[in-house]
Amino acid sequence: MFSLIASILIDGIAYGLVLFMVSVGLTVTLGLMRFVNLAHGTFAMIGGYAAATAITALGLPYGLALICAALAAGAIAYGLEIALIRRLYHRPELDQVLLTIGLVFMGIALSGMMFGNSLVPVRLPEFLRGATDLGFRQVPTQRFVPLVLGLATLIGIWLLFERTRFGIRLRATVDNPRAAGELGINTRHIYAAAFAIGAALAGLGGVAGAELLPVEPYYPLKYLVLFLAVVAVGGPGNMLGSFVAALLLGTVETAGKYLAPDFATIALYALMLLVLSWRPEGLFRRTSKT
Amino acid sequence: MTTKRLLAATLVAALTCLPALAETVKVGVVGPFSGPFSGSFGEPFRQGIETYVAMNGQPADGIEVEFIYRDLQSPDPGRARALAQELVARDGVQYLAGFVFTPNAIAAAGISAQAKIPTVIFNASASAVVSQSPYYVRTSNTLPQVSVPTAQNALDKGYTTVVTAVSDYGPGVDAETSFVKAFTEGGGEVLESIRMPLSTTDFGPYLQSIQLKKPDALFVFLPYGPPTFSFVNAYRDNGLDDAGIAFVGTSETQEVDLQSLGEAAIGLETGYFYSAAHESAENDAFKAKLAELYPDAEPNPATVSAFDGTHALYEMIRATGGEADPDGAIAAIAGASWESPRGPISIDPKTRDIVQNVYIRVVEQEENGRLVNREIKTFEAQPDYGAAQ
Fold first, then answer.
1. What is the pLDDT of residue B62?
2. Where does the sequence pass through the membrane (chain A) (predicted)?
3. CATH code: domain of residue A175
């Protein structure tokens, strides 16, 4: 009994942290910047391809490949923000949906052309392969990557948003763009940077989660619902909310797999239904600080 | 490039045999030539056809084959029927071929039966498919065909208890049903049958709960690509191999996925109908021509199914002299047998389904680092056990 509960918690938390890593960037764009970004998975996929290329073609170590992934996703997002996305901040949500879903399809076609239509593995270094013995059971060693990165991301984002000048400007910009602009904040620049940070986090998540969500051209479309579920349940714009939601969804789905395998997927959606009918704004609502 | 060469070849052919004007036989090929299944099926289909044509030329003097490719990305019965109808009525095809998904193949059967269009199924692997039209022939496999020998092999190896874990969709359920039947009839015991949703990404919990049941072996059926990749990694990373729970699979280690599975795949044992490492002159010739035409292509079961399917088309076209004679064509292919790159195969004269060897293979790493399915045991001339029931 103890080992069953412990197993559910261990697997659930490990899975939840993978979910958190791949969707944390989306809570920045969707929640803070209020931009409906369905192309979030594309940046995670770019990160995955960048890391896979860095490791197999350039022979870089795993740590550097992670940095490459974040940089590649962030840089491409920065370019897209300047070229396309900033034109749509003040347009209706439907326009934003159309643009970003278009980007998803372009991403699918381009990655299929460049990397082929089958999946591309992100090779792990020797010390992350195989299983780690916890005494009463084994866990995949790779799961420590999302564990460490997920906690680091949570702390890093909190420090960045709450404790730096950039964070103050970003919060000012999303709460009242006009007032922020009149106070001399370069809001265009802030938005571009925030969008790029969201994408860079997605890139990291794409690599950290590649064992469970393998990198392939249809990645952005296949897992879109998963990303949206985490953000919606957690409360858009709230990092801690996404973190709690990811752990909750991960644990509930995992418990379903152990206890009632045929209903595991339903468990996830049932939980979503419950949480969102209780709190339509998600578990943690982002409130503007006055 | 190829179209140019084809054009030049046609021109030369036209000039050299001017008096006997070549007759063109059109074949409509339906498959996922774009989209998520193009890498595992659409591209291999085209490569198999083109490789066969490059090795064998035209079926006979004065008969030319023209392949018309139509894209059908996913299971979509309505569209499958419409495409088949369009190919027959508008493009005037004499033969149909392809079909990855069972629902599509079943939907097109009405057209094949009514318009009397001999059709070669390149993949759709539910047992029922071929019986849907008297003009259907299959050159791939059925799930019972590979699952029953795989169960037999598990019994031969002395496994007495098994847990089955399959993806919860048609083929997964078929594989589970025929494996469980064969395994229990042979005296084995199935401790649990788990059906995992198709959208599953984290297989760890399933494997942990299987580990608690301590079976001798784990029978698996998963679709290609991401699910197989995640499952095999999870099997290793949760320590099931160390716990002595053997992996028993069918198509999981097929060539299109094998290299990306990496070291986690080494030692996995599966029962299936084609390994690129099959040792025969036919397979060597096939692989050499494929590599010449498509340097990046992996010889895959789908490629060989299309290759043999093209052979079946050629046999039918030759027997009927290129004329539209559907009954003559089917009579010519029913009962035919030949040496395929996969080994000896034949078409059952009654069911028009394929009879072939099923090989037990183990994944090994070659000196150049590439992974191969090494054949270690052969179950000869296996029929479709699903139809016999």
1. 87
2. 12-31, 38-58, 64-85, 97-124, 144-161, 190-213, 225-249, 258-278
3. 1.10.3470
Residue A127 domain-assigned?
no
Contact B202 A254 (CB under 8 A): yes
A134 assigned to some structural domain:
no
Question: What is the sign, positive or negative, of the torsion defined by CA atoms of B187, B190, B195, B196?
Answer: negative
CB contact under 8 A, B205 and A130: no
CA B171 to CA B173: how far, in whole Å? 5
With H, G, I as helix, E, B as strand and everything else as coil, classify residue A147.
helix
Please give the residue of chain A at the shortest CA–CA distance from B236. Answer: A130
Q: What is the pTM of this model?
A: 0.82
pLDDT tens, position by position, B319-346: 999 888 999 999 999 999 999 999 999 9
Distance CA A166, CA A163 (A): 9
Residue A290 has pLDDT above 50, yes or no: no
Q: Which residues of B touch A226 (CB under 8 A)?
A: 201
Of A116, A261, A265, the CB nearest to B194: A261
How far from chain centre, in Å, is Cα B235?
Answer: 25
CB contacts < 8 A (A, B): 108
**Domain for residue A133, yes or no?**
no
- Residue span of the structural domain in which A29 resides: 2-119+140-278
Percent of chain B exceeding pLDDT 70 equals: 94
Per-residue pLDDT tens digits for A11-42:
888 889 888 988 888 988 888 888 889 999 99
Q: What is the CA radius of gyration of chain B?
A: 21
At residue A283, the 3 state secondary structure works out as coil
- Is A6 a member of any domain? yes
Number of domains forming the structure of chain A: 1
Is the CB of A211 less than 8 angstroms away from the CB of B256? no
Task: Determine whether the interchain pair A117/B239 forms a contact, defined as Cβ–Cβ distance below 8 Å.
Answer: no
- Whether residue A85 contacts residue A60, with contact meaning beta carbons closer than 8 Å, is answered with no
Check CB contact under 8 Å for B200 and A118: no
Q: For residue B375, what is the enclosing H or E element?
A: strand B371-382
Beta-carbon separation of A261 and B196 below 8 A? yes
Q: Which residues of A touch B (CB under 8 A)?
A: 7-8, 11, 14-15, 18, 112, 116-121, 123, 129-131, 133, 137-142, 211-214, 216-218, 222-223, 226, 250, 253-254, 257-258, 261-262, 264-265
